[in-house]
């Protein structure tokens, strides 16, 4: 009777190194595609502020990265340079953007790294590590090598996965949240708690982790473990860092939540969920333009995968998918939902398992997802507002 080979000797095993290499190759290809699709000149739809920011980046030491600095990236870079401040006339409030990425960019700037370069490099490095953490965590949950590889493939090929390479928070949240989940499965609650604290400074959807732990304990009719309480306290501390800093900087501890009104969001409510779902149903009928119909597909697809994950893997896995989406819907709009579902990263592995059932399904996913990502990346670098 032959003994099973160690994981490191199995060519198909999703080891740390192989997962990281796969993610790295995907980022190099994505960054290259963005530069290739970049406009030669600004279009007539560019605003004066966008033109000024473009000129500033082009005059800097890394002008070739200018196509990746779009929309929210400008806010993150401005916060890194100037901190949080009350909005000037005609300007959106920067308190709506969380501090982890700006803090890291500012830290890099103190040692001489150009902020634009740091703003692009940091998310891409975070995605490489975060994708590997997510894959290893999914291996603990699913036990399937194929599911892990296909799930990481979904993370890289999803039509809006290019946001993982832009100066946005998505990659940082993936690293912190997936790293915390992996630490929890490895029975390292202190590290999981630290990861929850960091995740909360990138996305407040970090609350999905402690909520999932408590729901899991409640449904099992047992008291939450000390580790679950530690993760909850640490995640709450991360949110408190945001609230406290904005209180000191702007004199209003609720500045972050109020700022979202400027972007068309309501205060969270159950009624908001209903209104957002109705909006998504209406968007399904807007076939004359490609973007509006993609948003509800991403939304309803993620919700379906979240329900599947809950039933098959348990409430923690399900909460990590469903709560970020529910939190976004509670504000009464589907604004940016195509990007927000990136925080529901376990959904990628649920879809990966489904794709593993049929080669035809895998081919169909690539035929649909890769051209779609190319199109939306083209819109992004050409300053076409996706919403």
UniProtKB/TrEMBL annotation:
UniProt KW keywords: Endoplasmic reticulum, Glycosyltransferase, GPI-anchor biosynthesis, Membrane, Transferase, Transmembrane, Transmembrane helix
Location of the protein in the cell: Endoplasmic reticulum membrane
Record-level Gene Ontology MF annotations: alpha-1,6-mannosyltransferase activity; GPI mannosyltransferase activity
Keyword Transferase tagged: yes
Pathway annotation from the record: Glycolipid biosynthesis; glycosylphosphatidylinositol-anchor biosynthesis
GO biological process: GPI anchor biosynthetic process
InterPro entries linked to this entry: PIG-V/Gpi18
Superkingdom per UniProt: Bacteria
Bilayer topology annotation: Multi-pass membrane protein
Positions of transmembrane segments: 103-127, 148-166, 190-215, 227-248, 363-381
GO cellular component: mannosyltransferase complex; membrane
PANTHER family according to UniProt: GPI MANNOSYLTRANSFERASE 2 (PTHR12468:SF2)
Protein name as catalogued: Glycosyltransferase RgtA/B/C/D-like domain-containing protein
